């Protein structure tokens, strides 16, 4: 067992010794069986949250109402959730009410896919109620129980299905896919934030292109912001040569494929509830992509885009099959006399000290100095810039 499980074992044993049941569940069990990297382990127990808290010195009330307590143990933290079922799904969204139950089977039944419904006990034995092990071997994502019913309970599961396809390189089991095709419209009930998180995980997964094809084929794409009626433009995505590795690259590629105009990028990003910082970066990458498609950028254009966005735009151009001489661009960027405004030898105060009155003129002059320095026409030193000011 990986260290992360071994470290967590005493936590399960403490619960068992207190007379409760405790198991590893969910993604970590799936990932250990697949030999994938594990980032955190989820623990399910028959103990109620208050009972869990009694057993450990340091705990955090993460989601008491949903049965989740975070336990801090030996420098690690573990989410421990009481066995529960979910009921009263309203509006095709995650239920507000959960009911704690005393047995693991009920808890596993509420889980989305067979490969996510495996549990492991303290002996390392796997409990497999729904043939999740065989689906792991077959590399298929299959809903637990009746897929139609499960997607009606929580329509986000349809996005989770294509996201796991991408991350795990799995196929969708036939009936699960059919249920998505038949009920993709249910996705409209789900909040954009939750759809976005799954969409991004899908777009950045190692099998993004295949999963994206299923996202289009099942028409899930018709029920997310700004994608309706755009399947033809989006159908380029599955034919790209690489998958994007960065979220900004993913959004930039989508925006370029959708031919969204520069002044509409903000709207698109807001529709998807992306942060201003993310929107900003994507706007820069997309507009620099336009520059690269139009002409070889000048030194000042390289200076303005900056190293990070330059490299990200080159990445986007490569993925989209747009030829760019990336080595030459990077070399030219690295040879710039200054790479950031903060590296300029002077600032506004220096100009004022040299007799320039505060005002818009001063800003223009500073900009001119910066351009001359970047172009290599003016040395980046107080002396040289002082002389330049005198000549004005
Ligand atoms: P990841 O590696 O992305 O964390 P994960 O399988 O652990 O994958 P989580 O979203 O962390 O996914 O959820 C943990 C577990 O909770 C899942 O494995 C699954 O058993 C269950 N689960 C999560 N979301 C749902 C849902 N919408 N419907 C049913 N079960 C769910
Ligand atoms: Mg998880």
TrEMBL record:
Poly A polymerase head domain location is 22-142
Question: What top-level branch of life does the organism fall under?
Answer: Bacteria
Q: Answer whether the UniProt record assigns the keyword tRNA processing to this protein.
A: yes
Q: Which reaction does it catalyse?
A: a tRNA with a 3' CCA end + 2 CTP + ATP = a tRNA with a 3' CCACCA end + 3 diphosphate; a tRNA precursor + 2 CTP + ATP = a tRNA with a 3' CCA end + 3 diphosphate
Q: Is ATP-binding tagged as a keyword?
A: yes
Q: What does this protein do?
A: Catalyzes the addition and repair of the essential 3'-terminal CCA sequence in tRNAs without using a nucleic acid template. Adds these three nucleotides in the order of C, C, and A to the tRNA nucleotide-73, using CTP and ATP as substrates and producing inorganic pyrophosphate. tRNA 3'-terminal CCA addition is required both for tRNA processing and repair. Also involved in tRNA surveillance by mediating tandem CCA addition to generate a CCACCA at the 3' terminus of unstable tRNAs. While stable tRNAs receive only 3'-terminal CCA, unstable tRNAs are marked with CCACCA and rapidly degraded.
The name on file for this protein is: CCA-adding enzyme
Q: Which gene name belongs to this protein?
A: papS
